[in-house]
Amino acid sequence: MIDKKIKTAISEIKFPETDIYHEKNSADGYAFLGCAKEKVELDSTDCYELVKSSNFCLNKSQKIRGGEVPANTMYVYTMWPCIEFLNLRKDQKNVSMLMDTLDKIGRYPNGMMRYCTTEINYIVPNVTSCAALLYALDGQIEKTKDLVSVLLKEQKDGNWRYYDALTGEPLRWEDSFHLAMIVYHLREIQNKIQIDTQNIIARSLEKLKAVNRKSLDPGSIGWGIPMLYAATKNLDSDLSERAFVRTLEESLVHENFRVRAYAAWALTKEF
Prior knowledge:
Shape: globular
Radius of gyration: 17 Å
Number of strands: 5
Oligomer: single chain
Number of domains: 1
Helix content: 40-55%
Largest sheet: 3 strands, antiparallel
Strand order of the largest sheet: 3-4-5
CATH architecture: Alpha/alpha barrel
Distance between the termini: 12 Å
CATH class: Mainly Alpha
Number of helices: 12
């Protein structure tokens, strides 16, 4: 049962007037907020219309690893909240379209998912867990199992590394924000279709506990606390309780709309 104060706070979240860090143009913020509104039985029609008019993407070109990525590029991480929201709205037509796009994005020879519809030769672990969850939500269990097995193979000391897909050069590790995202994806997979991901989760939880022992690490872009809460709720009481307080007091009223939106989403997640 969602606290009435949280429901009220969600109802009062304002749409963005600026596009700082893609907060106005990107579909994901509206999708995250729409999911939260659905969960607390608020009208989500405004979010639904904005998600569709945003074409389920970032809607802004950006440079990634020195290359220009066009505005209409479809990103797996943006498709995820859109599909979650569209499922709640029972919009199977657009879910099917996005799942077809996910298939077209495809995978690298080592089994990890590509990042987006524009090739950037960048192996990002949380994109693979995200795709695994999307296939689970769509009932494509064999594809989910295959991606989970790839994640298990690639996991090292509870974490995953980014790679240059052309050279095989190892790059940075997942930060606390995105490691928590992977844990969330794996927990949701286990919750939705009963694929056992417990061993992978347990190792990553130990890494999250080590990273966040003294103070909570918001990750590389500073938005990681709500995801830490979603990942650890009913899994680790210390981490989840500390993350809950900061999500409620800081993230839900953050100056950036995308942070406010996924804080609302995190506070309404159930495990």
